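The instructor's notes for this session suggest beginning with a concrete chain rather than abstract definitions. Hand out the sequence below and ask the class to guess, before any prediction is shown, which regions might be ordered.
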Amino acid sequence: MKILKKILVVLLVLFVVAQFFGPEKNEGEMTSMDAFYSETNPSPEVKKILEVSCNDCHSDVTEYPWYNSITPVNYWLASHVNDGKKHFNISNWEGSPTRRKDHKFEELIEMVEEKEMPLNSYTWTHTDAKLSDEQINALVDWAKKVRIKYSLEPRPE
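After discussion, reveal the predicted structure:
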């Protein structure tokens, strides 16, 4: 029993010390998304869907929940955000080649239609981020229009 108490005390001390460390936060400027919104021209409805369901993980601006202050949860959240930004980052839109942008929208359509996005682990705590069928249709219709726009743009050989 004494050894169990010592192990628990050591674990508690480690947990408390770990609270003084954490990953870098994803707290960029809101203006980093302006180029994306300007170029893709979402309706107010679609923009709201993006803000509620996508921006936290797919931009340089994340609104963190209270539990992000707890280590190791903050590392888990940082991993999700970094992975999301690696796949689709609207803050890094300006200057990307048209072909890449078109491909990102192709992936967006696929992931939303198959209900793979937003992730279940995100919608568990952000219930307003869960997309209804109407929201999915609005998002997909907008994304398809953006893809048509990109298909009409000249592409370097």
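Then share the key points. The helical segments are 2-18, 34-40, 44-53, 55-58, 73-87, 98-113, 120-123, 133-152. The chain has eight helices and no strands.
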